[in-house]
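User: Can you model how magnesium ion sits in this protein?
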Amino acid sequence: MNIHEYQAKQLFLDYGIPVPGGKQTASPENAADITELLGGESWVVKAQVHAGGRGKAGGVKLAKSGAEVAEISKAMLGIQLITHQTDAVGLPVNQVLIEKTYPIERELYLSLLVDRTSERMIFIASAAGGMDIEAVAHETPEKIVTAKLSPIAGLQAYQCRLVAYALGLKGKQHKALEKIMQGMVDLMLAKDASQIEINPLIVTSSGELMALDAKINFDDNALALHPDILALKDPSQEDDRENIAQQFGLNYVTLEGNIGCMVNGAGLAMATMDLVKLKGGKPANFLDVGGGTNVEKVCEAFKLILSDKHVKAVLVNIFGGIVKCDVIAQGILAAVKEVHVTLPVVVRLEGTNVEEGRALLSNTGLNIYAADDLAHAAEQVVALAGEAA
Ligand code: ADP
Ligand code: MG
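Assistant: Here's the modeled complex, given as structure tokens:
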């Protein structure tokens, strides 16, 4: 799960990581009051969306007066912000963060994530911050330093010094960096974050370190342990269909093709998508309806698939292990009738009571094709989607 920059910065404060004074708002009327409250002479207005690259896309703007802050906030609130990290539709700006500006001497990069290969937490740092870290990694990998944490010893002082030297920090800045790095480690462990990124971490003209941007990702599987983090969720920043799917316990991911897929089990769903691709088609989604599926879930799954207007045909691939095939067939029939599915639906059933299940699906007068094996089903659905398109 992602959270907004202003929320991440509040967590930074809780863990002793310095951030600029700032406040978020959903209404431009408050903007001038906020600048008064914050003090200072200039401010930045920052669009709060779950994506980076805002600076280059007009989502971070400088203002020199309260009136200007209000004007910029008004123009930014309510738009869809498109950055190189969003899709072509962009993300809605429902809040802006108004922040004091700081004179920037240098922009650094610092992040903490989980390195799956070494099974350790790893710091990644670079003196070339503020820009695309992927480009730095690609073109000048020597500018990136890493430090892996021992699960027993944790973060050690020498590792902080190594990073501080690589970032060109001096004197008191070493201690300041150590405090920031330790804060990141404590935050990551306490809240089960999977990534914490500060880009840029700045050195101000008076030599202080400060997190100007903040991005935190959390491990979805640990959210049940952290109601405080879960409360920070903003569904407006996520795909509508994926939000609905979550409510019904369906694992759904929108993709770009035109063949809707309904499968039970994540592994089978992946294999099904592979096969569709192999037969020349393109899946419109990943959808795992789960092991113990029922009529209600199948109905909701159909509704989800059909709400995507790109879908031209549907492939249902269910293995009747926990649930029997005839029960699934009844569920599919009920769903096709209830949701008024007119698109061709190719169904491949396998497992317990498969004969009864197939019998139920044949000669229904509906646009349902009962396939006998998976390869054949994939070929058929690709052909049908091709005809419809
Ligand atoms: P993004 O990564 O989405 O582009 P950032 O928060 O990193 O957004 O902001 C982009 C740039 O704007 C930063 O690299 C920095 O140069 C400038 N900036 C952001 N916040 C401030 C601030 N409070 N004071 C001065 N400059 C800022
Ligand atoms: Mg940034």
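A couple of observations from the model: The pocket of magnesium ion (ligand 2) is lined by residues 52, 199, 213 (CB under 6 Å). The longest helix spans residues 172-191.
User: Helpful, thanks.
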